[in-house]
Design goal:
- This protein is mainly beta and about 400 residues long.
- It contains three helices and 31 strands.
- The strands form two sheets. The chain has a 20-stranded mixed β-sheet that branches. Strands 5-8-11-14-17-19-21-23-25-27-30 form an eleven-stranded parallel β-sheet.
- The longest helix is centred in the first third of the chain and has 25 residues.
- It is elongated.
- Belongs to the glycosyl hydrolase 28 family.
Length: about 400
């Protein structure tokens, strides 16, 4: 009996060791230094990163690309997954990736670091320094400048994880998810000057199943912007400011445009932002829509427009004068929103004359302006107010 028991224990130990060894051996790591990258911030390391990517893609089992501490200069880099055999590539970044100091080098590239048609890509840690201040100054001067590059973009990709990433001073948008499904962004930090143009922190377009958690975004445009065609989004525990707030829109530029639905934004603190929670649409004909949105547990600290729906968006009366928005907005709830407004009118619902907002729901709202209850203003909006609502609802 003892011999049988000992044999069984040895068999279990062998099985355990075998599977552990197999698991450890399953992941191959490619260090960018061995591919020729130089951590001096001056030597172009683009080729080394692309070589590491190609090597990982060629494997049919999980692989890790490791970026040790240091600064790595990269030009515009394209990470394609069209021919990737690998179902799980992890980029573990302990260093900083640096864009060229001359903004013209990547200024018309569209994206600095672009991933397309990838699946199962995870990015852990690291800092991306877009060095965008030179381009911002160019734009401020009124000179002829490049449009600017998005720092990190994912297109037509699935099952993406971004955890612990920092993005600094992007030329344009910091992070873009376009045509992506099932993505989780967590503990992301975005930092750019409050005056930096078009530097949205995280922009979502034509995507579904995207979750954004525990992130700190300070930038010159929207902290998070939600474009057409997005659904099933969950945004929670966000610190926003400076910036333009969290925006659904702009929507309704095109006549045939997919809508936005099933969006939850909760546990967000806005500090000194231009807007808090915003929905905006162009004053143009469109069959777009917004429905099934919840804004919950929101704190406003000196926010100019804490709660706003603007369906009259038409900068400089260009391309949309004398038109009304065709976007239909319905089933939008605002629950437990407290704090201070930077303007007297804290709640503004300026909805479409052609398609008035419907199903707007307010509950437990308490917004003040200079220690007095703020005001509300509504046009073409219909809904209900429940519980304590200050300012008094104009629905």
């Amino acid at each position: 009996l003892e011999l049988n028991t000992m044999a069984a224990i040895l068999a279990m130990m062998f099985t355990f060791i075998f599977f552990c060894s197999s698991s450890l051996a399953a992941t191959i790591t490619y260090n960018v230094l061995t591919m020729g990258a130089k951590p001096d911030g001056k030597t172009d390391s683009t080729k080394a990163f692309l070589t590491a990517w190609a090597s990982a893609c060629a494997l049919a089992k999980p692989a890790t690309i490791y970026v040790p501490p240091g600064r790595y200069l990269l030009r515009a880099a394209y990470f394609g997954g069209q021919n990737c055999k690998n179902p799980a590539i992890t980029l573990r970044v302990d260093g900083t990736l640096v864009a060229p100091s001359d903004y013209r080098v990547i200024g018309n590239a569209g994206s600095w670091l672009k991933f397309e048609s990838v699946s199962g890509v995870s990015i852990y840690g690291g800092t991306l320094d877009g060095q965008g201040s030179g381009l911002w100054a160019c734009k401020a001067s009124g000179r002829n400048c490049p449009s600017g590059a998005t720092t990190l973009a994912f297109y037509s990709s699935n099952n993406i994880v971004i955890n612990g990433l920092t993005s600094l001073n992007s030329q344009r948008f910091h992070i873009v998810m376009d045509g992506c499904h099932n993505a989780k962004l967590q503990a992301v930090k975005v930092s750019a000057s409050g005056g930096s143009p078009n530097t949205d922190g995280i922009h979502l377009q034509s995507s579904s199943g995207v979750t954004i958690l525990n992130s700190d975004i300070r930038t010159g445009d929207d902290c998070i912007s939600i474009g057409p065609g997005n659904s099933n989004l969950w945004i929670e525990t966000i610190s926003c400011g400076p910036g333009h707030g969290i925006s659904i829109g702009s929507l309704g530029w095109d006549l045939q445009e997919p809508g936005v639905q099933n969006v939850t934004v909760k546990d967000v603190t806005f500090t000194g932002t231009q807007n808090g929670v915003r929905i905006k649409t162009w004053s143009r004909a469109s069959n777009g829509f917004v429905k099934g949105v919840l804004f919950q547990h929101i704190v406003m600290v000196n926010v100019d427009n804490p709660v706003i729906i603007n369906q009259n968006y038409c900068p400089d009366d260009h391309n949309c004068p004398n038109q009304v928005s065709g976007v239909k907005i319905s089933d939008v709830s605002y629950d437990n929103i407290h704090g201070t407004s930077g303007t007297q009118v804290a709640v503004k619902f300026y909805c479409s004359k052609e398609h008035p907002c419907s199903g707007i729901r307010l509950e437990d709202i308490n917004l003040t302006y200079k220690d007095q209850t703020a005001k509300a203003s509504c046009v073409n909006a219909d809904g209900t107010a429940l519980g304590s609502v200050q300012p008094t609802s104009c629905l």
